[in-house]
Amino acid sequence: MSSTSSKTNLLGMSQNELEQVFAAHDEKPFRARQLMQWIYQRGVVDFDAMTDLAKSSRGWLSEEAEITLPEVQSRHDSVDGTIKWLFASGWGQAVETVFIPEPGRGTLCISSQVGCALDCAFCATGAQGFNRNLTSAEIIGQVWHAMKELPRRDNGEPAVTNIVFMGMGEPLANYRNVVTVLELLVSDWAFGLSRRRVTLSTSGIVPHIEKLGDACNVALAVSLHAPNDELRDSIVPINKLHPIATLLEACWAYAAKHANRFITFEYVMLRGVNDSLAHADQLASLLKGKPAKVNLIPFNPFSGTQFKRSSAETIRHFQNRLRQRGLVATTRKTRGDDIDAACGQLAGKVSDRVRTPLGQKNIVDKNTGKSKIRMASA
Length: 378
Ligand code: SAH
Ligand code: SF4
What we know:
Blueprint: E1 8-9, H1 15-23, H2 29-41, H3 55-64, E2 65-66, E3 72-77, E4 83-88, E5 94-102, E6 105-109, E7 113-115, H4 124-127, E8 130-133, H5 136-149, E9 162-165, H6 175-186, E10 198-202, H7 206-215, E11 219-223, H8 229-235, H9 244-257, E12 263-269, H10 277-287, E13 292-298, H11 312-324, E14 328-331, E15 360-364, E16 371-375
């Protein structure tokens, strides 16, 4: 967002915060809900057009507040219908948002951070390091923009029917802002999506999975990618902090809170690394009898990576083996190849990854996957 104004940005505020803004002007809470409907359901951000708010309210709103959207830098359309937008995130950086149309639904894949500190070995975002968290306005603004720009479906529904937090960043490392966004996505006063149509994908920040279960029971996807700690330690460094057994315990507790709704386990297929039938057997033993389904993701290469995608045959055998062992297993179709919009290829523009806007240095501990911000000495 490029605004330097001192006005309060109302975009991305929780209902509670917005009600407080109105309360400070002795206005009733339902005024805040009306404003949310204007912003999120009608796509209106000009206070003067909000005709059911009193003229006096529009007056103080215009003086003290604004609705500032993230700035679209570019749009790229794939031959397969996938669309990718780059949103400016300040200081020359940008994040990416991808729309994937499919028969009967339209999925929007959104970003939660500029870069990512967790440094998974096979991920283009991770390879860039971490710059900063996106604000709730910058996250919900991606959804607002897609809803506004894309034409409605034939049945009159908005083009975006599903949201997945599978863009740039680790959403649970930006917990507070992401929970505010989740609330807006499912709120009847905002986007009103069913909780089943909103999926948060995490590489496994266990304490926050536990908190999320109480805060907002959206669908959960977990980036497992390896069936044992030794291998997972080497490709998903956060595993050293939260190993598989602890992670799975948190997953089953999350599922139990929500009538045993299935958790999706993502598993990127890396040639010669995690794709043998022995790996499939280990994976099946971990998940068998649990509310789990497995989504295999063919690895998407990016420049500089040492990994290769498993062959289609290997992926098929792996999937069949999981099925024979009683698991529900699917393989994700790769979309938007020609515009670098596929899973794990989102790199945006995190050009100077170790410098934050305040001149701090971001140091990622390769052993723990933890990010430590320090003041740069030079
Ligand atoms: N940080 C979150 C969400 C963003 S990544 C997470 O890790 O879950 C969304 C999914 O894409 C994750 O499962 C991630 O592991 C996977 N992914 C990352 N890099 C990939 C690549 N190069 N090819 C295929 N999938 C990849
Ligand atoms: Fe971050 Fe997810 Fe990429 Fe890992 S896979 S580096 S957690 S964005």
